[in-house]
Design brief:
Layout (H helix, E strand, L loop, with lengths): L4 E6 L10 E4 L12 E6 L2 E11 L8 E2 L2 E2 L8 H13 L4 H8 L28 H15 L5 E6 L5 H14 L3 E5 L6 H12 L3 E4 L5 H13 L4 E4 L11 E7 L16 H12 L2 E6 L4 H8 L4 E5 L10 E6 H6 L8 H12 L3 E5 L8 E3 L17 E3 L4 E3 L6 E3 L14 E3 L3 H11 L5 E4 L9 H10 L5 E4 L12 E6 L13 H13 L10 E6 L5 H8 L2 H15 L7 E8 L2 H18 L6 E13 L2 E9 L1
Parallel strand pairs: 2-5, 7-12, 7-13, 8-10, 8-11, 9-10, 11-12, 14-24, 15-22, 15-23, 21-22, 23-24
Antiparallel strand pairs: 1-2, 1-4, 3-4, 3-6, 16-20, 17-18, 18-19, 25-27, 26-27
Length: 630
């Protein structure tokens, strides 16, 4: 009779090695708990893996023994093992790669000392809640007290005090002996949020993101597992932390696309957080000034409880918004990146010693470099996109594969030695021109290129926050979460950049970006103004952002998506195939699409494609996709 054996998932990243393998457990090992890391013989070598359960294998299999256990405690709790199984099925991905994604950080060689106060003190800040804040908090704390799996959408205008509601909900969660997960979309937001929470909750707060040193990361992981850390603030990967008693999950800026993992294994942190909230009977709060259409319709359909904050606290009002039509500017002879009105407002703020934020969501100096003789644009040799010129490093760079090359002296296409031309304006060009136009202004630039070095992001924001700069020029890094009371003017240099991307959510994302960056103005006692420059002032997403017509933009988006069969009114799955040989990829994609059309009922699932991906070549791999709609 075949005895019960350990089910082991081996840690090998290969499409043909994604199943479960059975191994005998030596008597001296007892019966290790599921989630335990082991070393097992695999072929002619030893590999790492995890025990995920026990069962009897099929007869006739040549069974081998587990070589050794790696550690005395399992890497995964029962909850995280269940989560891994769910993710593997939901995202159609090998279980081994999911387990590798959520596995704990390496244990430091030297032992760690975690010192936490025996009786942590909470330090209230004395802020008096508005009636809307109090009503929202009451509903959240009631659900916390009942230990219900409740889902809330905290829909509050920028500067309305959502963070204060989060902090008080966290306080109620800690008082009940449970833990808090607070997710932010970007690493850049963790210092500000951790500082706020640590001021109130002390050493009960930890931070989690991929740039943490290994020792720091393990300390946070161990503190969460042992229950010594009460509040974890982190980016999307923090959703896999081994909580002992999770009571509250907050997803701040829940609409942000950064919550979606764009590399294998793919996942959306919001979906994972919803699963964990259900498992733990925890409360989950999705917060945003510009909720995703999915969350907005979920609230409209009654699946999510809607909590609204429609006003800023007394003494602080929403900024005035002025729309500038760039077509009229050019008709009047002004071809500059900055309108006459916006320039006048910048000078006015500088004369008053007030601060300004300028937003342009385009990195580099020039987005297109071309030959004036043959007209050929310089493109990446690995990807099907144009190279972007970066003046700081004097090089052309691909923003997909990060390949860089120096500016050639002759055109690679026709060999002409005529000087290459630059087309379009990137944020580096704006910085250079602003320094010439405003020689006395102190200007800081905040983008991916200026924040590569460790600590540079905090240094730039710290300087601006302390009033050591007059103008903060940035990409979307400046649009969310920042609170600068000295900023009275925000300028959007080109509101149209995200409007025409090959994405059915482009209009929604444009509205969200404009609304979020507008919220950086007038957060202090002085009133603020936002100047939005655009070539499409009549577009509904831009009009809605400028007129604060949130209902109008969601209604328009909902009607368009419903008529086209897009989420949230249907399910949409993208199957993407990639490979080095374009002909092979297209042939396989065509065969797969044909097979799907033969298997799936057309009345239930529509199969579209194959078609080239919007960027059909990345890092030397050709990409084709098939869309499945239900």
């Amino acid at each position: 009779m075949v005895e019960e054996c350990a089910e082991v998932i081996v840690k090998i990243n290969h499409p043909r090695v994604g199943g479960i393998f059975h191994y005998l457990v030596p008597d001296e090992m007892g019966k290790p708990l599921p989630g335990t890391k082991v070393s097992v013989p695999f072929g002619n070598r030893a590999v790492e893996g995890w025990i995920i359960g026990y069962s009897k294998p099929d007869p006739g299999i040549n069974l081998r023994e587990i070589a050794e256990l790696d550690g005395s405690e399992p890497d995964f709790t029962e909850e995280l093992l269940g989560l891994a199984h769910w993710m593997s099925g939901y995202y159609i991905h090998p279980l081994g790669e999911i387990l590798n994604l959520i596995s704990p950080p390496p244990k430091p060689k030297r032992p760690l000392k975690v010192s936490v106060p025996e009786k942590p003190q909470v330090h209230p800040n004395g802020i008096i809640l508005t009636s809307e804040q109090q009503e929202a908090l009451d509903k959240i704390t009631k659900a916390l007290g009942n230990r219900e799996n409740s889902r809330f959408l905290l829909y509050g205008v920028t500067g309305s005090g959502k963070t204060e509601v989060y902090e008080r909900a966290a306080e109620a969660t800690l008082a009940a002996g449970r833990q808090v997960l607070y997710l932010v979309p970007e690493i850049a937001l963790t210092p500000q949020m951790s500082a706020l929470f640590k001021e109130r909750f002390g050493e009960q707060v930890a931070v989690w993101h991929h740039r943490l040193a290994g020792r720091e990361k393990y300390r946070a992981w161990e503190g969460i597992r042992n229950g010594e850390i009460g509040i974890l603030i982190g980016t999307r990967s923090a959703v896999f932390a081994p909580f002992r008693s999770l009571g509250l999950i907050v997803i701040d800026e829940e609409h942000d696309p950064a919550y979606k993992q764009q590399q294998k294994p793919y996942y959306h942190a919001r979906q994972v957080a919803l699963w964990r909230a259900r498992y733990n009977r925890a409360v989950i709060v999705l917060g945003s000034a510009t909720p995703s259409l999915e969350s907005y319709t979920s609230a409209a359909w009654g699946k999510t409880q809607l909590l609204k904050l429609t006003k800023r606290p007394p003494g602080r009002c929403l900024p005035k918004i002025t729309l500038v039509d760039l077509r009229k500017e050019q008709q009047g002879g002004n071809f500059s990146f900055i309108s006459e009105y916006l320039m006048g407002q910048i000078k006015l703020r500088l004369s008053r010693q007030e601060q300004v934020i300028l937003f342009l969501n385009r990195r580099g100096f020039a987005p297109l470099v071309f030959c004036p003789v043959c007209g050929e644009a310089l493109k990446c040799s690995n990807c099907s996109i144009s190279l972007i010129y970066h003046q700081q490093t004097k090089e052309l760079r691909c923003h997909y594969c990060n390949a860089a090359r120096s500016l050639p002296r002759a055109c690679p296409s026709c060999g002409s030695t005529k000087k290459l031309r630059f087309l379009g304006i990137g944020i580096q060009r704006v910085e250079k021109d602003l320094k010439q136009l405003l020689p006395g202004a102190r200007i800081l630039r905040l983008d991916f290129d200026t924040t590569r070095k460790k600590g540079s992001f905090l240094r730039i924001l710290g300087s601006f926050s302390k009033g050591k700069a007059d103008i903060l020029l940035g990409t979307q890094m400046v649009t969310k979460g920042h609170d600068f009371p000295g900023v009275t003017l925000v300028g959007v240099l080109n509101a149209d950049l995200s409007l025409h991307l090959p994405d059915y959510r482009s209009a929604e994302h444009t509205y969200q970006l404009l609304t979020q960056v507008s919220g950086r103005a007038g957060r202090g006692l002085k009133p603020g103004e936002v100047v939005v420059q655009t070539f499409y002032p009549e577009h509904y997403s831009i009009k809605s952002a400028c007129q604060r017509g949130d209902y109008l933009v969601y209604l328009e988006e909902a009607q368009r998506r419903q008529s086209l069969g897009y989420p949230p009114f249907s399910e949409l799955i993208r199957v993407r195939l990639s490979g080095k040989d374009e002909e092979d990829v297209l042939k396989l994609a065509s065969c797969l699409a044909q097979e799907m059309k033969g298997i799936l009922e057309p009345c239930q699932v529509v199969v579209l494609g194959p078609a080239p991906a919007p960027v059909y070549r990345v890092k030397g791999y050709y990409r084709y996709q098939i869309m499945l709609g239900t």
